[in-house]
């Protein structure tokens, strides 16, 4: 029935075009002939393929024809991919009754989107979707030689092992507790200073500065100069802007020609600056010991430099990996904490309950990492915020099918980009009771793991490419949240807006401005 209607539609459209061009050109040759041949061909491939233009060469089994959206000619569904892409895609999947798998085109890129835990598990946890789709800006910024975008071969496995052992292991996280704690104290002072000087606190700036300080300390050690730190801040923020920008080349083979904003050029310039700065930091670190094999510090760079020959990385690969850690570790913790504090100033009863728990279990001394497992309500608050505001609503960077595969009964060819709409899953009323309500208690009533085993709530992804920094990220969020609540009572200084803006991560569109007592 659907195909029938479409066929009639494009025959009528062709006839209309033929008529229009005949009238407009007053000479019937050659435009009408050309149009009447090309148009049906184009429309045929665009209109009757589920998912639109990018799927034109894929033949689906008649028993398992997927549901898809055709989108705009050539662009496909690209116009949906703005700052609220997760919401628009969720609405689309629902309206097409395609929560399990929705087919669409982003330019010439075939894409499937899962908004259901079952298909999300198949995509994230199987081996078929173990690569990332090409992102030109990520490649120019060297991330293809780092964990996030390296193809899933031996090199990527080696990097993950190094990071798991020397950056994110429980021992390393425990060793770095002193640093995180010290940064927390500095943030408290800054909060107090802002209150005294301005009468209000712009929390985002304080948290971003703290996150950067903390990640720089664990990656490079504490020797970095103020100037170098400032340059790193600027580099990370430019990298965020560039990588979050729309890039034609990611979706069309010759899209690079349309780089009107010069994103490609700016990425190359930034990569040169990153290489120069981190290259110098590596050289300086090496020269502090002379032999280059005598590092006894705990920072990640010292560990990388002291690896045995067979495990060691070239300098340019080490630069890519160190840059990735700084880049990834800076913003997301600050973003989560800003969402949490926004919710807590809007719900003073929940804030009071969290403070009461802290009082009861920890008392007046500063909270430590070992207290966190006992702070069940505090953990429930973090979970509830990650459910309502997952920092990667489409799980940051998508996955790429490395071979043909079936997801459920639907065929997905190699080269397809797969996205999981975690935001749609965490807001689905058939999965979560009262999904729009902020109710941390739900996680006291039911134990739900955040770490990737339960696809109803997997803000860190799942499977072989699950976020390797999740334990460090959570330890930091819990510790700093507990300290912020222990020290101050938080109230809004201006109306709090919960509107979202999806760039690389999903931020609060309007920064939170509070007062403390
Ligand atoms: C605390 C909040 C964080 C959140 C919500 C988060 C979220 C994510 C998500 C959704 C992915 C993609 C997972 C997938 O494809 O299945 C990811 C990957 C990654 N994350 Fe995180 N992340 C966080 C913190 C961190 C930190 C602190 C670091 C490092 C310092 C980090 C480093 C990485 C890396 C290197 C990858 C790529 C993994 C791969 O492709 O093998 N993340 N993260």
TrEMBL record:
User: Does the entry feature the keyword Oxidoreductase, yes or no?
Assistant: yes
Give the EC number(s) under which this enzyme is classified.
Answer: 1.14.14.82
Enzyme class, UniProt record, top EC level: oxidoreductase
The alphabetized UniProt keywords are: Oxidoreductase
Q: What is this protein called?
A: Flavonoid 3'-monooxygenase protein
């Amino acid at each position: 029935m659907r195909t029938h209607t479409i066929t009639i539609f494009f025959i009528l459209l062709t006839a209309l075009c033929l008529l229009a061009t005949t009238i407009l050109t007053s000479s019937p040759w050659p435009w009408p002939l050309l149009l009447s041949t090309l148009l049906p061909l184009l429309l045929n491939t665009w209109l009757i393929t589920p998912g639109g233009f990018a799927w034109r060469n894929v033949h689906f089994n008649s028993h398992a024809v997927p549901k898809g959206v055709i989108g705009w000619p050539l662009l496909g569904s690209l116009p949906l991919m703005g700052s609220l892409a997760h919401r628009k895609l969720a609405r689309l999947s629902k309206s097409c009754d395609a929560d399990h798998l929705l087919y669409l085109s982003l330019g010439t890129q075939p894409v499937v989107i899962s908004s259901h835990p079952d298909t999300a598990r198949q995509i994230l946890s199987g081996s078929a979707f173990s690569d990332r789709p090409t992102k030109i800006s990520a490649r120019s910024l060297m991330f293809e030689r780092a964990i996030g975008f390296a193809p899933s071969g031996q090199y990527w496995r080696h990097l993950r092992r190094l990071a798991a052992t020397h950056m994110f292991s429980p021992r390393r996280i425990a060793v770095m507790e002193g640093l995180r704690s010290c940064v927390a104290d500095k943030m408290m002072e800054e909060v107090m200073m802002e209150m005294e000087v301005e009468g209000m606190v712009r929390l985002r700036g304080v948290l971003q500065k703290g996150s950067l300080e903390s990640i720089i300390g664990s990656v490079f050690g504490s020797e970095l100069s103020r100037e170098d730190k400032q340059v790193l801040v600027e580099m990370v923020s430019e990298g965020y802007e560039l990588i979050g920008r729309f890039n034609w080349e990611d979706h069309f083979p010759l899209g690079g020609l349309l780089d009107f904003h010069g994103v490609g050029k700016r990425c190359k310039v930034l990569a040169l600056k990153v290489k120069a700065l981190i290259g110098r930091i590596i050289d300086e670190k090496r020269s502090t010991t002379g032999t280059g094999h005598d590092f006894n510090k705990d920072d990640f760079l010292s560990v990388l430099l002291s690896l045995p020959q067979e495990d060691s990385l070239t300098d340019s690969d080490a630069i890519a990996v160190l840059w990735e850690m700084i880049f990834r570790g800076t913003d997301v913790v600050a973003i989560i904490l800003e969402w949490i504090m926004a919710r807590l100033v809007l719900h003073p009863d929940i804030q009071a309950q969290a403070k009461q728990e802290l009082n009861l279990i920890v008392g007046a001394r500063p909270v430590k990492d070992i207290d966190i497992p006992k702070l069940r309500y505090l953990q429930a608050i973090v979970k509830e915020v990650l459910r309502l505001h997952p920092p990667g609503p489409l799980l940051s960077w998508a996955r790429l099918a490395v071979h043909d595969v079936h997801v459920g009964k639907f065929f997905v060819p190699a080269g397809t980009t797969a996205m999981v709409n975690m935001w749609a899953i965490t807001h689905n009323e058939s999965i979560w009771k009262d999904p729009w309500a902020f109710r941390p208690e739900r996680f006291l009533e039911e134990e739900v793991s955040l770490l990737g085993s339960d696809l109803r709530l997997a803000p860190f992804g799942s499977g072989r490419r699950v976020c390797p920094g999740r334990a460090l990220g959570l330890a930091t969020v819990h510790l700093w949240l507990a300290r912020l609540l222990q020290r101050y009572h938080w109230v809004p200084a201006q109306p709090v807006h919960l509107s979202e803006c999806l760039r690389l991560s999903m931020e609060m569109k309007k920064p939170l401005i509070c007062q403390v007592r």
